[in-house]
Amino acid sequence: MERGNYILRKVVFAIGTLVAVVIFNFFLFRILPGDPVKLLIHSPRMTREAQERIRTTFGLDKPIWFDGERLREGDVLGAFDSQFTVYLRNLLRGDFGVSFASRRDVSDMLSERIWRTVVLVLGGNIIAIVLGMALGLIAAWRRGTRLDAGILLWALFSWALPTFFLGIILLILFRGHLPVGGMVTPGLKPEDGLTYWLDVGKHLILPTITMAIVYTGEYILIMRSGVMEVLAEDYILTAKAKGLSTFRTLRDHALKNAMLPMVTMIALTFGYTVGGAIQVETVFSWPGIGRLMYEAVQKRDYPVLQGSFLLLAVSVIVANLLAEILYSVLDPRVKAE
Amino acid sequence: MQAVRQFFRSPMGVIGLVMLLLVVLVAVFAPWLAPYDPRERVQVTPDDILAPPDAEHWLGRDDAGKDVLSLLIYGARVSLIVGFTASFMSMVIGTTVGLTAGYYGGRIGNILMRFVDFLMVIPDLPLMLVIIAVMGRGLTNIILVIGLLGWTYTARLVRSQVLSVKERQFVLRAQAIGSSNTRIIMSHIFPQVLPLIIAQAVLDVSVAILAESSLAFLGLGDPTLISWGSMLNFAFERAISRQAWWFILPPGFAIVWVSLSLVLIGNTLDQIVNPRLRTHHLFDPRRMVALVVGGAVVPSYPMPDEE
Amino acid sequence: MTLLDVRNLSVDYLTDDGTALHAVEEVSFRLDEGRSLGLVGESGCGKTTIMLSLLRLLPEEGRIVHGQVLFEGQDLLQLSEAQMRGVRWHQMSMVFQGAMNALNPVRTIETQIVEALRLHEIVDSRSAARQRAGELLALVGIPPERGCQYPHQYSGGMRQRAVIAMALACNPHVLIADEPTTALDVMIQAQILELLQQLQSELHLSIVFVTHDLGLVAEVCDDVLVMYGGTAAEYADCDAIFNSPQHPYTQRLLQAFPDIEQPGATLSSIPGNPPRLDDLPPGCRFEPRCLRREEICATAPPPLIQVAPGHWAACHFVEARS
Fold first, then answer.
1. Which residues 6+ apart lie within 8 Å of A315 measured at CB?
2. Angle between helix A146-160 and B245-273 (nearest 10)
3. Residue A173 CB contacts under 8 Å (≥ 6 apart), including other chains
4. In terms of C-beta density within 10 A (0-12 exposed, 13-18 middle, 19 or more buried), how is residue C30 classed?
5. Could you say which DSSP state residue C46 is in?
6. Chain A CA closest to residue C53
7. 3-class state of residue C38 by DSSP
8. Is residue C322 predicted with pLDDT exceeding 80?
9. N- to C-terminal Cα distance for chain A?
10. Which residues on chain B are in Cβ contact (under 8 Å) with A32?
11. Which one of A70, B2, B24, B197 has the lowest number of neighbouring Cβ atoms within 10 Å?
12. Three-class SS of residue C314?
């Protein structure tokens, strides 16, 4: 089955990418200059015992990749008893290490924050995609008119706008009218039920709008060029020759055909928007993974950085894979190549 | 050249170019334009911190008492340097990879493109953030990171263009007369690809500038240099509560100004280089029949049954 | 009965700076019921423009500036766009060149035929539409079960047949076939032609063949309009065109056709190029390449002169006979 082969290829590639990211992640943090132990041990006030404990837990007394000597002795299994294997083992167990700054398990910190970033990214993207597609379609259909020029200029402008700066402007404009910091007004707890969630929702408004505004431009540009390509195709002329009205031609022929390449482009852009989430969360103090990364950078909290990056990268890889699978379902022309 | 003429006929392109030239001039002539040297130590009194604009400091002062206008002017240098250097790097790497993958195809091509796909999937800002956090802050590192990660679009673009040019007659002829591969690539294929690369490179500069300012805003800029992004970093942390808009807004607007100018230029170039001369079938059809009203139409020859 | 009566059709194309290129000037022809007309000429002679003008499908820069397109007595150029939509496909339909591009690649063949059927309300229900689509496919020699497949799953010849089936969906009176056999290999070409002839006689269709292939014209067309540089060069029935061509261009065209009985003869061609639309000769458009040219040809456009009943040629040197 052609489509099955295609999907299989994509899954294999995604797994390969994951593996490469994991290896890269490990390697990156080992090239830090200086004694790795000194880096792991944030505070010099830590006792010798604690240092030793950390050394053993992270296997820092072991070689990084593998032990050449033991390999030559024929002890294959022992040769791979290295920092890398320890890292992999921990990873598979869900152990991302311990934060320097807060002493908490990184995996706990990540799991409590992940949904906050997901809500933000998804919310912003959905609005941006819907708006972007609608405006892009209109711009392409009305190519050359002032409406098209206006939409195009807006899209180019929002593309050129740094996400964080838009956040700052919105923050200045709306402070006092909408919550501009944090996730929830201090004092409210989840047990407060609806009040709590409504409050969270209010805090979510500005960050989501910031994301939406910035990325609508991106999607307008993609949709516009996609639709323009489609509207130049001969089957649109055939549709006209059949007597279809402009509206029906757009709906039944242009839209579906333009959407197909959009799916892949959306997937690519999605990864890009994760970077925007980091900026937005920083500006609005929205306590998601992005904000966590920002704080970790300030505090040189490497385990947190490492874990967050891995999580974000994995999410984007998975999202991409889903998008490609979706594409293969929608496009009947997909072949295994 | 015709392309140049076309460029200057587009208002968008010209405006973008003028905007960019202004910034370049400001950056080049910074020492003469800036009223103060931002690197000079100044004696400040507490009143000077985040002082609002006045006659001596048109844009007020920042959180260390320095003149914002001078900071702004000097900040142009970092943005432009990072932007053009990183973009140039991306251009070179991307073109090489694209040309190789497209022309030679086969295994090399596949492996290269897989690598490109791999890089494209990983989210850019988190990756750059993590690398800089580990490798340390500094101008070179920033340029390297942006340049070494930003070449993927160019590579894909070049490759697909090479694939289509490769099959054309003049390439096949050159191969038939025994030209070496390098010669074919350089004298036949590369000139066809160059316009696209240039259009993309311009957009890459704006991407690089935005990336640098994002990294600087997040605290990963070069601590020894003034950049608009780092100005915003300080502004965000210290000036917002004080409503010191003169410190907050100008660097941001400057970034928008530069990247918008590049985007306008890049978009215009893109339209020239990728001409969509193809028809667009859904237009208002009312003007199609432009008959002159009135007057009978006499057929050019009498029909048999009318004679 | 005359189905299609085109009178003095003139079409311009507007360039970026506003100048009008006269792509077609004062062209007239008729199509009678049950007959087929060949619209012949080189690339760029205006035949495609004429074809598109009939259904008002010109590109954005096209303008119909003069003439009438009388379809069963009604001038199509006077209709509103909404009325025109009712005429399209239902009364007059088209078979486009390059069927692969004319079909939407992500919709099934059946869906695209059904779309036409439902749009013009040829049938009442969706199931009746699917049924009819199957019948149409069978009519052109495609197994109806294959209707649920996509264009890329069909071979080139099958796609052309599918496009023909789609064009016949609403039982049009006139079918316009644009280069129906170009881009197909010779065996398939013959099959498609045969199919069209068969359909013509079975369904009592009138067909306009827009082509540059004289061989096709000789085989299937009853009447021929030879176009050159946007104007009509010669207009007659098929026999007259092939046996007694009057216009120098037609004569040269026929000469250029390789004669199977003289395999060793040098191929002749017409030196020079067709006129550029932005640089039209003030007189006869063929004058720069014509061997019989004289002074009057460069200054005055030749009128259409009747050289025999039903046979006209646009040349200064043909003898008028009534």
1. A274
2. 120
3. none
4. buried
5. S
6. A241
7. strand
8. no
9. 12
10. 134
11. B2
12. strand
Q: What dihedral do alpha carbons A202, A204, A206, A208 form, nearest 10°?
A: -140
Q: Could you tell me the maximum CA-CA distance found in chain B, to the nearest angstrom?
A: 107
Flag whether residue A243 sits within 8 Å of chain C, measured between CB atoms: yes
CA B185 to chain centre: 26
C111 touches chain A (CB under 8 A): no
What is the amino acid identity at position A82?
A: S
Q: Dump pLDDT digits (tens) for A268-289.
A: 888 889 999 999 999 999 999 9
Q: Burial of C91 by CB count in 10 Å (0-12 exposed, 13-18 middle, 19+ buried)?
A: buried
Element (H, E) at A165: helix A163-174
| Amino acid at the residue C98 | G
Q: C103–A241: do the CB atoms touch at under 8 Å?
A: no
HEC per residue, C173-242? CEEEEECCCCCCCHHHHHHHHHHHHHHHHHHCCEEEEEECCHHHHHHHCCEEEEEECCEEEEEEEHHHHH
- Cβ atoms C126, C114 nearer than 8 A: yes
Chain A contacts of C89, Cβ < 8 Å? 241-243
Distance CA C120, CA C116 (A): 6
Report helix, strand or coil for A177: coil
Six-digit token pair at C262? 């003289």
On the CB side of A304, how many CA atoms lie within 13 Å of its CA? 25
Crossing angle between the packed helical segments A2-30 and A83-92, to the nearest 10 degrees = 130
Distances in whole angstroms, Cα of residue B269 to Cα of each of B8, B196, B277, C24, C186: 10, 8, 15, 35, 44
First to last CA, chain C: 23
pLDDT in tens, A23-81: 888 888 777 665 454 555 555 556 666 667 666 665 666 666 666 666 666 666 665 66
pLDDT band, very low/low/confident/very high, at C168 (cuts 50, 70, 90) = very high
Q: Which of B2, B68, B3 is nearest to B38 (CA)?
A: B68
Instruction: Give the residue from B291, B303, B305 with the most C CB atoms within 10 Å of its CB, the best one to mutate.
Output: B291
As a whole number of angstroms, the distance between CA C304 and CA C314 comes to 4
Cβ atoms within 10 Å, residue A46: 13
- What count of other Cβ atoms lies within 10 Å of the Cβ of residue A330? 13
Task: Please write the tens of the pLDDT for every residue from C239-272.
Answer: 999 999 999 899 888 888 777 777 777 777 788 8
At C298, list the tokens.
Answer: 């460069």
The structure's pTM equals 0.86
In contact, B255 and B228? CB cutoff 8 Å: yes
Please indicate if any CB of chain C lies within 8 Å of the CB of A244: yes
Judged by CB atoms closer than 8 Å, whether chains meet at C119 and A331 is answered as no
Contact by Cβ (8 Å): B101, B113? yes
Rounded to whole angstroms, the Cα distance separating B105 from B181 reads 13
What gap in Å lies between CA A305 and CA A308, rounded to an integer? 5
Whether A257 and C152 lie within 8 Å, measured CB to CB? no
Distance from CA of A243 to the nearest CA of C (A): 4
C231-237 and C304-308 strand pairing: unpaired
Tell whether the model's pLDDT for residue A209 goes beyond 80.
Answer: yes
Beta strands in chain C (DSSP E): 2-14, 20-32, 36-40, 62-71, 74-75, 92-95, 174-178, 206-211, 223-228, 231-237, 304-308, 311-314
- Other CB atoms within 10 A of residue C302 CB: 21
Task: Report the candidate in B230, B273, B256 with the shortest Cα–Cα distance to residue B38.
Answer: B230
3-state secondary structure at position C63: strand
Q: Tell me how far apart the alpha carbons of residues A37 and A310 are, in angstroms, rounded to a whole number.
A: 22
Nearest to C207 by CA among C247, C268, C164: C164
Alpha-carbon span C21 to C11, nearest angstrom: 9
